Predict the 3D structure of the following.
Amino acid sequence: MSAASRAAVRPNRARRRTVLTTAGAVVAALLMSACSSGGTSGGGGDTNFVMGKDGISTAKKGERAAAPDLSGKTVNGGQLDVASFKGKVVVLNVWGSWCAPCRAEAPNFEKVYQDLRSKGVQFVGINTRDTSTQNAVAFEKQQGITYQSLYDPTGKLMLRFKRGTLNPQAVPSTLVLDREGRIAARSLAALSEDKLRKMIAPVLAEK
């Protein structure tokens, strides 16, 4: 190989390394946003949602994005598919046993779940960055959580949400899906019981 050919190969390899490094950084950035107290709107493109003064972003009924496939193994070893709850209002909460804000908000979620489950509201957790289910199960037992959580240790489920939508970008994050499985509201911070109820109420009132 001539000196000129070797010189041409080196930049190509460097470019490939740059692409791979950038892709890895995107995944890492999402996972390292853990325990954030807030976030920004979904990245890139036109967005069809607004953020209220309370930090909760909402999308109008005709401008909502469908939630992606959210199915797989639960922290208790079962199988769960969020799509099976179509027809109900679904509250998705992204959490980790290692996350202090998650511990703070967990009792609020269980209380509201018990109050609203008979009204057609289903809660589902998405447990992330726990390297085994043991800590996640212990967290649920300690906090008295009775609804199921998908086990998503590497954040793959979170990455299925399209950019520019009300996607989860931090831990904790909370999404409210309408009865058609579309994303109606999002919070990127821990929620009080009052804020959680106010986030769910408009979607539950929809006909």
About this structure: The mean pLDDT is 85. The chain has four helices and nine strands. The CA atoms of residues 15 and 98 lie 37 Å apart.
